[in-house]
């Protein structure tokens, strides 16, 4: 497991149909950067028990932030999918039962209490908004689809469950007007070959002015050396930045 890479799973037919707009990615990106972590992948999934299970299984040894599907309605599959992916039984979590009973009293039964059925051995993630917890198994963190609930949970996770990362990705770039992106391909290949701890990227733009932003990210020392090579190459081509 790369200790500072996080995979996002965002669940919901309503997002894929356009009825709701995803807000989790941008907020996750902000919090991840603040804590020196990286988003490795983002996957949008329908409310499908088997698709959710399959994705979790494929990320078994990774850090996952999963949003949505932990309620008690028939389209909420994440709790069962997570249990099956981890070869766990779905069992009633005693502390979750107390939280749900304290919140709803007699109205917790017979349906709301189903939200206390979690993969055996799960730990709870506190929900500061309505007290109905999320849960985690190892480094897999499962939160509601509601942003106002999930975002404080993410902050709690970074404070309590994910160790501070000292693996900081350094990033430098320059903008080159009126250059064809194809002129940079050989340079990018050479730099990634010469500096194995960095990754190159180019971001072309057509309007309002043709330009390419070319950058290097990764190990700070290698980024600085690689950027000197980039600038020298661009100058030798006769372009300015």
Task: Please tell me what the overall shape is.
Answer: elongated
Helix and strand content put the structural class at alpha/beta
Strand order of the largest sheet: 2-1-3-8-7-6
Cα distance spanning the termini = 39 Å
Tally of helical segments: 8
What is the top-level CATH class of the largest domain?
Alpha Beta
Write down how many β-strands occur, each being a DSSP E stretch of 2 or more residues. Answer: 11
Rounded mean pLDDT is 96
Strand content: 25-35%
Quickly count the domains: 2
What name goes with the CATH superfamily of the largest domain? MoaB/Mog-like domain
**Major pleated sheet:** 6 strands, mixed
Report the CATH topology name of the largest domain: Molybdenum Cofactor Biosythetic Enzyme, Chain A
Helix content: 25-40%
Over the alpha carbons, how many angstroms does the gyration radius reach? 22 Å
| Name given to the CATH architecture of the largest domain | 3-Layer(aba) Sandwich
Order of helices and strands: EHHEHEHEHEEEEHEHEEH
Give a written overview of the molecule.
The protein is of the alpha/beta class and 241 residues long. The protein folds into two domains: 156 residues, MoaB/Mog-like domain (Molybdenum Cofactor Biosythetic Enzyme, Chain A, 3-Layer(aba) Sandwich); 67 residues, Ribosomal Protein S8, Chain: A, domain 1, CATH 3.30.1370. Helix content is 35%, strand content 25%. It contains eight helices and eleven strands. It has a six-stranded mixed beta sheet with strand order 2-1-3-8-7-6, sandwiched between helices. The protein has a three-stranded antiparallel beta sheet with strand order 9-11-10. Helix 2 packs parallel to helix 6 and helix 3 packs across helix 4. The longest helix has 17 residues. The chain is elongated. The mean pLDDT is 96.
